[in-house]
Structures are given as structure tokens and as C-alpha cells.
């Protein structure tokens, strides 16, 4: 359907707006999938025989959470991005000692990105801005821009170019952290297979 109030040039820009909106939304989905993976896997704590179930619940909850909840939600069983970035302050013990069984081992694994207070404040600001940008694009794009006029299409297209640049920046930053977390988990898995670690775990190591 051709918008009735557009010039031929405006119609071409209108088509570009549709294409670039789709481009932004696909990048947003990649960003959200990365956030969910980080949220689900940054922490794991509990008795050894329950770790698989605990991890599965974290993955399930993170997979259905909104981006806003993933970034700054409270009371969740997964790790929000606000908690991922730390300036080195104290954190609560990952294991509740009063609820641990006495007859088996318990583990706590925590992944954090440490930075200065200033860096963390800027990172949090950018995360919140990205959530707001996502929400405007998904829910209010046609409220914000008159895409049935030449001028509105031109403004919308410029906004989409700027939006994609910011979303792509945030996506690549988080993807780097996800890759770092994956490498750390692999190194830990290798360490846990060594005789030295098993000796330390069972208390058989000698000085």
C-alpha cells in the first residue's frame, strides 16, 4: 500500500524506513539473547546434586524476562546486568550456610566485570538508555515519527541510523563479555578435572 501523502522520493525513503526498522529490531533481538545468556550463566550456587536443576531454572526464568528486568530487575533468580558490573564492593554470600546439607559438597561460581565507580556509572547509564531506546522502537515508533510524510520519513530514517549504531555498540560490548565468561567457564572446567583440584576437594592434598 502506497502512503497517499508521500512524493515519489518520500516513498523511497519510506521503504528504507521499513527496512532499517527491521534491521534495528533484529539487532535488538541479538542483544536480548546475549543479555539472557549472561543473566542465566553468571552465577551458580548450591549443593552439587542440585546444580543442574538450579541452572535450568535460571535459564528458564531469564529466557522469558523482559529486557528491563534483565538489566535492573530485583528479586530474580538470575543475575541482572546491574549486578554483573561491579566496582569491587562487597556482595552477599552466594551460599546460605544454614540451608546446606552436611553430607555433600556445595559450590558457588560467580562471574563479574570489575571497573571503577565512574566506569560502572557510565555503563549503567548506557544500559538504561539502551532499554529505553528499545522500548521506544518497539512500542512507540509510529507515535514518535510521522512516516506518512516526507519530512517525517527523513527524520525517522536518521533516527534509525543513529539507533542502530548505539544498539550495535552495546551488543558488541556484551558479546565480548559473554565470550570472556565462556572462556572462564571452560578454564574452570579443565581445572576441576585435574588431580590437584580433586585432591583439594576431597581433602587429600598435602603441603
Q: Give the neighbour order of strands across the main sheet.
A: 1-3
The main sheet comes to: 2 strands, antiparallel
What is the number of beta strands? 4
Low-confidence stretches: none
Outline type:
elongated
Spatial gap, N to C terminus: 79 Å
How would you portray this structure in words?
The chain is mainly alpha-helical and 207 residues long. The chain has one domain (8-202). It has eight helices and four strands; from the N terminus they run αβαααβββαααα. The chain has helices at residues 8-41, 51-63, 67-72, 81-84, 117-139, 141-144, 150-191, 195-202; strands at 43-47, 85-86, 106-110, 113-114. Strands 1-3 form a two-stranded antiparallel ribbon. The radius of gyration is 23 Å and the shape is elongated. It starts with 7 loop residues before the first helix and ends in a 5-residue tail after the last helix. 19% of the residues are buried. The model has no long low-confidence stretch (mean pLDDT 88).
